[in-house]
Specification:
Helices cover 70% and strands 0% of the residues. It is built from 5 helices and no strands. The protein has helices spanning 3-23, 27-32, 35-51, 69-82, 90-107.
Length: 108
Amino acid sequence: MAADDELMMDAADDARVVGYIRTHIPQELQERLSDETLYYLLDVLVEYYADSDLLDAEPDDEGFVSIDVDAIAEDIAKIAHKEGFTDLTAEDIAFVVEAHLDAEGQDA
């Protein structure tokens, strides 16, 4: 696959995930989050997953991996605040993390 085609597929997938997140978070949060912020959070989440050991975690006997959404949200909030991008709370970001995981689960 050509690099341009891959970039277009990645952009389309990101747009699908951002759309999913937007419709699966509380209305009040939807109104406060711009698409730019959602794309930023998506980028930070993907980078966070890649840098953490979460992707290498072994599933339990039922095939599930334990994911601490609150801990992830805390870490993402710290990154976002440090970068000066958003003042969302970890509680706000937890909704985004949960929706992102659900969106990714739709592909499985």
